[in-house]
Amino acid sequence: MVLEVAEETAHWTVARSSELYQVEDWGKGYFSINPLGHVCVHPYKEKDRSIDLKVLVDRLQLRGIDPPILLRFGDILKHRLSEIYAAFQRAIKEHAYQGGYHCIYPIKVNQQRQVIEEVLRFGRPYGFGLEAGSKPELLAVIALADNQTPIICNGFKDDEFIEMAVLAHKIGRRIIPVIEKYTELEMILHHAERIGVRPI
Prior knowledge:
This protein has helices spanning 2-10, 14-21, 23-27, 53-62, 74-94, 113-123, 135-144, 159-170, 182-195; strands spanning 31-33, 39-41, 51-52, 104-106, 129-132, 150-153, 174-177. By secondary structure, the protein is of the alpha/beta class. It starts with a helix and ends in a 5-residue tail after the last helix.
């Protein structure tokens, strides 16, 4: 048994590793295996521009930063946002769509401040917005978004959630509530009148 494993290891290749772990499939052009067998990241899907992750981690360790290490690839996020926008623009043109369009990032996907800030920064030229589905998410979105950012209020909306949304509207945030029940509309009208703003 040990001999079989040793023989298998001796004949192992980088190509077999890449095939076994299917890096080309899940990596979607952003990740690959280099000839040394190291995982590389390609922030813009350009094969000739890559970062060897093993070399990066080795250099971080030389600086006294030991694993586990969380690496964020803002350039991948930026590239993905531009690809999403471009795909929708192609579809809009192809189908002669006349309505408006805003890509919306639901912060429940990843609530880390740095990620949301990057979505806002990289998505601003494309009119990207944020979705809040709970009171804590709405508070976070109100704090991070500017007055041009569309804020979709979705999910369970109790009286406090609606009041927060109306108050955010009063300070200039661009609030778009998803109304699922007549009672939600009644709460919006009640708080808008009480606070003295036009209903959102």
